[in-house]
Amino acid sequence: MPEFLDVIIVGGGPAGSTAGTLLAKQGWNVTIFEKERFPRFKIGESLLPGSLCTFERMGVKEKIDRADVIVKHGGKIVSACGARTNRFLFSNVFRCKYPTAYQVERSKFDQILLDHAAETGCRVRQGELVTDFSCDPDGITVTTDTETLRTRYLIDCSGRHSLVGSRFNLRRNYSDLQKFSLYAHFEDVDRAPGIEGTLTQMIRARDRWFWMIPITAKKTSIGVVLDAQTFRRMKLSPEAAFHRMLNEHPKVIEQMPRARRITEVYATGDFSFRNQRLADERWVLAGDAAGFIDPVWSTGVFIAVFSGEKAADMLDRVLRQPEWRAAEFKRYERHVGRVMDLYLRLVRSWYTQEFAEVFFNPQEYLQLVPAVNSLLAGSEKPFPEVRWRIWVFNLLVFLQKRFAIIAPRLSLQPNIERI
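Given the sequence above, the corresponding structure tokens read:
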């Protein structure tokens, strides 16, 4: 008979490592199957303060602190036309529990989390692909490319091409967020001194936006997000299109007089989606396997860690009290779904001209959206305060779109004379 495990986790990214660590710390028999061998290149380097509480609980925060990471103090949004800049610090926003987060090189960061899961007692099997699974009333039979195992529950953390989501055709794309992203790592990008040099920069143009994220003492991640149709109309290779767009935007290129690209130019499209169900009788979806909204508010790792922690806590309760399973699975779906809904509303506002015009307004009370970056710490208590503030901000965006009464109009076009 195949070995019977308490939980099998498919995928060793932040969601899988978080769930594996927390379940192993509770004494459960857990195995992570990761199809790749770490370290491996991964995008999504900017973290949010809400994850730090989970890292402390996992016992991994000190290891992250010792790594070559950047302590992130907040973010800065710059208009491509050069007319406006708005900086926000986590220490200044509503109900800030942790005043900093991290900027990380994901290949090293993910390795730290996965190695820590193994040190905690979770078995980690790298380079093994889960090829199939089947559910029955007593558990799940999981087939890998080397063996067959039995488990009570399965957590799918296998990313955008979710094992469970693909099997049951659960994926639904956001039709209004059909975006395309190009990105690479550079060295010797100019940085401001002190706290200013730790900030995530978001350069906002009319039909695209750029990120510039310092991820180690030497490396910077630079990327651009635009409509997929706009990229196709360019009829250029990803590398040619990427460098053309960089050079068209002075607010980006002025920081790169000595910069050297040290990776290939990567391209990702069709990345905004959510799976229709996040849990069923014997399986749970977490991280990108549950859904991914957009890179703009650094949601990727935050939702991965958040959902990995919630999945682990929920299955710990279910394994102890199996009769609670139906209610616990529903609560997990509702909790993770609420966080994703909150970010989705922000992302949809971001892609309007009026969002930038309202956000760049110098009045302090309009700086509402950055609060979400430090509020979502896994507790339900702040949610009512977050929701009404976002509702107010979205109302201001609507009024700006309808009547242009909140802030002056911005062109958001790059100042070509500066090139």
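Residues 64 and 112 are 7 Å apart (CA to CA). Try to locate this feature in the token string yourself.
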